[in-house]
Design goal:
The protein is built from eleven helices and 13 strands. The relative contact order is 0.14.
C-alpha cells in the first residue's frame, strides 16, 4: 500500500532523536501503534531493516544509520521552511504585491505606502500600476485597487470613496469662451476626450441626466491616453474636460478649475480595494488593507462636498457666449 514518505521518515527520525517510538508518537500526535506501523511500512517500502527494537531499547542498524545521515539535512531544511511559513503569518514583513490603476492613482496610493513602510520597514512593496485588467491568480496579487468592483472570482471588495466625474474648465477658458449652461451648449466648445490606455478606445462622458447615467461622446478638440496630461490641458485653458475627483479635487479647491453643469455630475462608480480570502492571510496584507481603509474610506481629501461644489461652481462667469 502507498505510504506517506515524509510522515514515516519524520517518525523514524523522531524515534531516534527521542529514543522511543512511544515518545515519537506522542510528539507527532499519533498513537504508538500508528507510529510503529509507519516504521514497519517504511522498512517494507525500502526493503531494508532500519531499527533494532525491543520493548526496552531502540537502536539503528547500519542501513538505518546511513539512511538517517542522508535524510537529516533534508528534514532540517523542510522544518526550517515550515517554521518560516508559519512565522510569515505572524510577522509584518516580506513582499507585498499591490496593483492599481495608473490613471491618477499614484498621488493617492503613495502616502499610504509611505506611512505603512515607515511603520513596518521590513515589508517590501512590489507595486504595479496599470489600467489593464489584472489576472489575480497569475499576478499573485496581495492587494488591489480598482475603479469599480473586480469581476475576478474569490475576490473580496471594499468601496473606499465615490469617483465624482465632473465637467471642469479653467477660469481662463470660461473668461474667453463663456460658460456653457446646458449640455447642448457644449457642441460650441472645445472639449477633451480620454482614450483608454489598454484598449485605445475613446471613452464617452458619463453624465447624470435626471437620475440616469447616460454615455455621451464628444467631438474632441484634444484627446490623450494620460489623465494627468488631460488635466494639464484643462488647467491651461485649452479645453473643457470631464475629470475625476481623484485628480481634480485639489485644483477645484485652489480655484484653478471650475466645475460646471453640476446637475450632470456622475458618481455612480467608486474606488475599491480588493483582496483574496481572509484564510491564512499574512499579517502584512491584513495590516496594509486596514491602513488603506482607515486612510481612504470616505475621505474628504478626494471627495468634494455638496457645499464645496456649489461654492466652486458659483465662480463660473455668467456669460454663455463664446468669444
Amino acid at each position: 500500500m502507498p505510504i506517506n514518505e515524509f510522515r514515516t521518515i519524520s517518525t523514524f527520525a523522531k524515534a531516534i532523536e527521542l529514543g522511543s517510538i512511544r515518545r515519537a508518537a506522542l510528539a507527532q500526535g499519533v498513537t504508538p501503534q500508528a507510529a510503529s506501523q509507519a516504521l514497519a511500512q517504511l522498512e517494507d517500502h525500502l526493503g531494508v531493516r532500519l531499527l533494532h527494537r525491543t520493548t526496552r531499547s531502540l537502536s539503528l542498524t547500519d542501513e538505518g544509520q546511513r539512511f538517517l545521515e542522508a535524510t537529516q539535512p533534508a528534514l532540517a531544511a523542510l522544518q526550517r521552511a515550515l517554521e518560516q511559513a508559519r512565522e510569515s503569518t505572524d510577522a509584518i514583513a516580506g513582499p507585498l504585491r499591490i496593483v492599481g490603476p495608473k490613471s491618477s492613482f499614484l498621488p493617492i496610493l503613495m502616502p499610504v505606502i509611505d506611512e505603512f513602510c515607515r511603520q513596518h520597514p521590513d515589508v517590501q512593496p512590489d507595486i504595479r500600476l496599470d489600467d489593464a485588467r489584472t489576472n489575480w491568480v497569475n499576478e499573485r496579487v496581495d492587494v488591489g485597487f480598482r475603479v469599480g468592483i473586480s469581476a475576478d472570482e474569490g475576490v473580496i471588495a471594499r468601496r473606499l470613496f465615490p469617483v465624482q466625474l465632473m465637467i471642469c474648465a479653467a477660469p481662463s477658458y470660461l473668461e474667453r469662451h463663456g460658460t456653457p449652461r446646458s449640455l447642448e451648449d457644449l457642441a460650441a466648445h472645445r472639449c477633451s476626450a480620454f482614450r483608454h490606455p489598454a484598449t485605445g478606445q475613446m471613452l464617452a462622458w458619463y453624465l447624470n441626466i435626471e437620475g440616469d447615467i447616460v454615455h455621451r461622446h464628444v467631438v474632441p478638440a484634444f484627446s490623450t491616453n494620460d489623465t494627468e496630461l488631460e488635466v494639464e490641458a484643462v488647467l491651461a485653458g485649452q479645453v473643457i474636460g470631464q475629470l475625476a475627483n481623484l485628480s481634480a479635487a485639489r485644483h477645484i479647491r485652489a480655484g484653478r478649475l471650475v466645475p460646471i453643469l453640476l446637475q450632470h455630475m456622475s458618481e455612480h462608480i467608486g474606488m475599491h480595494v480588493y483582496w483574496g480570502s481572509h484564510e491564512a492571510q499574512p499579517r502584512r496584507v491584513r495590516a496594509f488593507i486596514d491602513l488603506a481603509v482607515e486612510r481612504l474610506a470616505d475621505t474628504s481629501t478626494y471627495v468634494l462636498s455638496e457645499k464645496e461644489l456649489k461654492a466652486a461652481g458659483a465662480l463660473a462667469p455668467n456669460s454663455r457666449r463664446r468669444s
